[in-house]
Specification:
With about 650 residues, the protein is an alpha+beta fold. The chain contains 26 helices and 25 strands. Strands 1, 3, 6, 8, 9, 10 and 11 form a 7-stranded antiparallel beta sheet that branches. Helix 4 packs parallel to helix 7 and helix 20 runs parallel beside helix 26. Belongs to the bacterial solute-binding protein 8 family.
């Protein structure tokens, strides 16, 4: 631990003391774990106890110092006749950001110094005119603790990020929360924060948020006469229609039907309230202050400062039933027509209600899908879907503005019908609201989340660093919808266009001459492979069958990253340059290395593309048609 850094933080921080207590526990006294409402310092002075803080356990004997940030779960079990300690509750922040969330415990070398300051703080705490003196003593206490830590180099354990996120969600659930907003609050990338949270809880932050909100809503539906609209707003859903859709998706029935029918049924094992208590969230008996204005607690023992509510109990037990809630149904244990069983296949009840389904093979196994899905959501394959006559109800943001759309004359009205579902992974709340009957996911790590919402087909876009042949990709998409015939009709037409293009290019590239494709970035030069590449390489090499260099033939992946100095060794007689980064491309072309390349001297360089917003980014049917025209025009010198 770096003492200088800690001192600097304490010097900069705004500090507010919330309470100072002296507590005596008796062996055999029944206590409960509780969630710490603020940062604490605990100093034990007499007796012994087993102290549990989140996942860590400490044996206290005599003088011990414990520190933790807000939100940790604390439990104290005396192992001697009496266990006596002092505890300080405080907040410290810089520009509204809470500090000092670290956890540590140590035996002080100078315990009497700490004890004297702690005892004085406690004695003066109830005297309003002495509060400034107490704060001064607190800073002296901190300084002594930092000196002890500096000598001992005590290991500091940071409070679990997942626990902090859970605490944040439980406090601000009624406010707009997204994965991006959580990532900003906790200073992580959205992907990294989601991974850490899922590793700790087994679910994503947004999935936890949805479940937390719905459990609170369920409690309100069962215990109050509040309207569905009032309940919706109180748990963070301003749109009551959105709330009703997401409630029905998770619970199998509408909120109104749940209130009138489900609450009358006996409790079943689907409810998290019927499961053993979670190891993460024990019933939280509030044994501490709960607002900044309550300063007094002079009686022996730690008082219950307010009554535990049913909502808080529900939140405490939420995670223990999380896996079952993902497929929670109407209360009979049988999935409804709208639900998936969690692996992308439809439950038996669905098959009995509607036999109009098909089996689709995926890398994750066979999936039963609707024969004619009406509400498709996808994180990839926009052009493939539209070419098959399928307009998705929701799609990834990037898919709504792909570079080929304007050139392919896709009507603006068509795109406006499609809901923007954000980036990878798709926004789960919006996705749930859309009530899709089929979801297409292209990234493995997102599939489990989608499966909790509806029937999901996993169709990977990339295979390692390679991409499958574009015609094979189109065939794969068509099989999901039973539209193989339509796909083959387009492929036949496209191959005819390819044959006509090859005829036009006959004789342009002489026998023995070769073609290369490169792309410049700020950090490297990328040479695309003869197989598995992107950015038009499939059109150039596979469709038009322009001859690649030996280096392009021998690449294990879809491209190879090299330095500018060795670029001449990779280039053929004709060089296509994909203009993905205009600044990097211009800089490379101004270099002496580039100017000395034979293809450059002979004027056999073809610049194409438009900063990642063109028909060469994707490999759908519309893009392939446009790519074919562009490449032919470049080689014939007829491009505009």
């Amino acid at each position: 631990m770096y003492k200088s850094n800690e001192i600097l933080l304490w010097d900069q921080a705004t500090v507010k003391l919330l309470d100072v207590r002296h507590i005596e526990r008796v062996q055999g006294e029944i206590l409960h774990k509780y969630k710490i409402p603020a940062s604490i310092f605990l100093l034990s002075v007499q007796g012994s106890a087993q102290v549990q803080l989140d996942d860590s356990e400490f044996s206290f004997t005599g003088f011990q110092v414990l520190h933790s940030g807000k939100g940790a779960i604390l439990n104290i079990v005396p192992t001697s006749k009496n266990f006596v300690y002092y505890i300080i509750y405080y907040r410290a922040w810089i520009q509204e950001e809470d500090l000092f969330q670290s956890q540590y415990c140590f035996s002080p070398d100078a315990p009497i110094l700490l004890y004297n300051k702690m005892q004085l703080m406690y004695q003066k705490w109830n005297e309003q005119e002495e509060r400034l003196n107490v704060k001064s003593l607190f800073y002296q206490f901190i300084h002594q603790v930092l000196k002890e830590l500096h000598r001992k180099e005590t290991e500091v354990k940071q409070t679990s990020v997942a626990v902090q996120v859970i605490t944040y969600i439980q406090e601000y659930y009624a406010e707009p929360i997204t994965l991006d907003s959580l990532a900003e609050v906790f200073n992580f990338s959205a992907y990294h924060l989601s991974s850490l949270f899922k590793e700790y809880t087994g679910m994503s932050p947004i999935d936890y948020l949805i479940r937390f909100r719905l459990e609170l809503a369920t409690e309100l539906l069962m215990t109050t006469d509040a309207s569905v609209g009032e309940i919706s707003a109180s748990v963070g859903y301003k749109d009551v229609y959105y709330f009703s859709r997401i409630f029905k998706k998770r619970k199998g029935v509408s909120p109104a039907h749940f209130r009138t029918k489900e609450s009358l049924r006996p409790k079943v094992a689907e409810s998290p309230l019927n499961f053993p208590i979670s190891s993460i969230f024990e019933p939280i008996v509030q044994q501490y202050i709960n607002n900044d204005n309550h300063y007094h607690n002079t009686e022996k023992g730690e008082l219950h400062m307010f009554k535990m509510t049913k909502s808080q109990t529900t939140a405490a037990l939420l995670l223990c039933g999380s896996l079952l809630l993902g497929a929670c149904s109407s209360g009979t244990g049988t999935a409804t027509k709208e639900q998936s069983n969690g692996n992308g296949t439809v439950n038996q009840a669905t098959s009995e209600e509607s036999t109009n389904t098909r089996i689709v093979s995926t890398p994750k196994g066979d999936v039963e899908v609707p024969a004619e899905p009406k509400r498709v959501a996808a994180d990839q394959y926009m052009g493939h879907l539209l070419k098959l006559g399928i307009v998705p109800i929701g799609a990834r943001t990037f898919m709504l503005d792909e570079g080929w759309m304007e050139k392919a004359d896709i009507p603006k009205e068509t795109i406006e019908k499609i809901e923007d579902l954000g980036d990878f992974p798709l926004n789960l709340e919006k996705l749930t609201m859309l009530d899709p009957d089929l979801i297409i996911g292209s990234i493995d790590e997102n599939i489990e989340q989608y499966e909790k919402i509806g029937t999901t087909v996993f169709l990977p876009y990339w295979e390692g660093l390679k991409t499958a042949g574009p015609l094979d990709k189109f065939r794969s998409v068509s099989k999901i919808f039973g539209k193989e015939k339509e796909a083959e009709e387009w492929i036949t037409e496209y191959e005819q266009k390819v044959a006509e293009a090859k005829s036009k290019l006959a004789g342009v590239i002489k026998e023995g001459e070769t073609v290369s494709i490169v792309q410049f970035s700020q950090k490297a030069v990328y040479v695309l492979a003869a197989k598995g590449g992107n950015y038009g390489s499939s059109t150039i090499y596979n469709m038009l069958q322009l001859p690649p260099t030996e280096s392009a033939k021998n690449m294990a992946e879809g491209f190879e990253s090299i330095s500018l100095e060795v670029l001449p060794e990779y280039l053929g007689d004709y060089v296509f340059v994909y203009n993905g980064d205009a600044d990097a491309t211009n800089k490379a072309m101004e270099s002496n290395i580039w100017k000395g390349i034979p293809a450059v001297k002979n004027g056999k360089v073809y610049l194409y593309g438009d900063n990642y917003h063109d028909e060469f980014v994707m490999e759908d049917p519309f893009s392939l048609e446009l790519q074919l025209v562009t490449i032919v025009n470049l080689l014939l010198g007829t491009s505009k």
